[in-house]
Write a structure and sequence with these properties.
It is built from seven helices and nine strands. It has 288 residues and is an alpha+beta fold. A hairpin with a 6-residue loop joins strand 2 and strand 3.
Length: 288
């Protein structure tokens, strides 16, 4: 029996040319250079934490609240019922083959049964949607959406990713107008004015920065808060664990400063500062 042949027509104008195929190949190679890892907050390893900090340095972000030593414990000690995943978006250099972290997105994931959309996780304390460099924001957003859509149960991402940027610093409540304005006290309101010769009780501010002393000073801070706060930190186990863990992690790096105000020999106020140098911010306060 003579073999049968199939004739394939060629030369059609609608077929992709060599240049088109070459461009498509480049696009596929570029897409393959992006990798998105989804982890639980406790599953982010030390190498990823180092790459996270390097990404913050590249984007000139010095806010301690965006540091992994703050955000990861915050995501772990969250209210019961919420599911948070940390998305790490990596870009591989075509020449060197090395990968660089280009985006970190804490995501509030949908319920595994009822479903829904994933959303950028926005803790009230940090006010963060995503940590993405300005130049890579569009590519990171696209890579993340493709990764979520490729899950066994595809998930859509709601909202847009915003590039990382520095948060505004704290401003003093007092203005120059208020501080410069002087008023006299009416004679009828002089009751309760301190008598002549009265002296304020001696006050002293003590600062602790030594890593080995951090644990004891944080427990002193929590005890002060328990005596003075309307809603003590230690009354909420998740909040107490968060304060202890974050303080320990920042303390190991010398990036925690604890200040106590003593009056008449007794501690009356305390503040936990995260960060070092000009980037330091007050994180928790207790006492008067």
């Amino acid at each position: 029996m003579a073999p049968r042949f199939t004739v394939i027509q060629g030369g059609q104008s609608g077929a992709p040319g060599r240049a088109t195929l070459f461009a498509a190949g480049l696009e596929l190679d570029r897409a393959a250079a992006w990798r998105v890892d989804l982890h639980r907050p406790s599953g982010v390893d030390a190498a990823s934490v180092s790459a996270w900090r390097a990404m913050l340095v590249r984007n000139a972000v010095t806010d301690p609240l965006r540091d992994p030593d703050h955000l990861l414990p915050l995501a772990q000690h969250r209210p019961a019922g919420s599911r948070v995943a940390i998305a790490l978006v990596w870009d591989r250099d075509a020449e060197t083959g090395r990968e660089a972290l280009q985006g970190v997105m804490p995501l509030a994931m949908p319920h595994p049964i009822w479903g829904g959309r994933a959303r950028p996780w926005q803790p009230a304390e940090a006010q963060i949607t995503a940590l993405v460099g300005q130049a890579a924001a569009e590519a990171v957003d696209r890579a993340l959406r493709e990764r979520l859509g490729a899950l066994r149960r595809p998930v859509r991402l709601a909202g847009a990713l915003e590039p990382a940027r520095e948060t505004p610093r704290f401003r003093s409540v007092l203005t120059s107008d208020r501080s410069a304005r002087s008023r006299s006290i009416p004679a009828a309101n002089l009751i309760g004015i301190r008598p002549a010769g009265w002296e304020t009780p001696s006050s002293e501010i003590r600062t602790v920065t030594e890593p080995q002393a951090v644990r004891d000073t944080v427990e002193t801070f929590l005890s002060l808060d328990a005596r003075t706060a309307r809603h003590p930190i230690i009354a909420d186990p998740a909040e107490a664990s968060l304060v202890r863990v974050v303080s320990r992690l920042f303390g190991r790096r010398g990036a925690l400063r604890v200040e106590f105000l003593r009056r008449a020999g007794e501690i009356v106020a305390g503040t936990l500062h995260l960060g070092a140098g000009p980037a330091s911010i007050p994180w928790r306060r207790a006492g008067a």
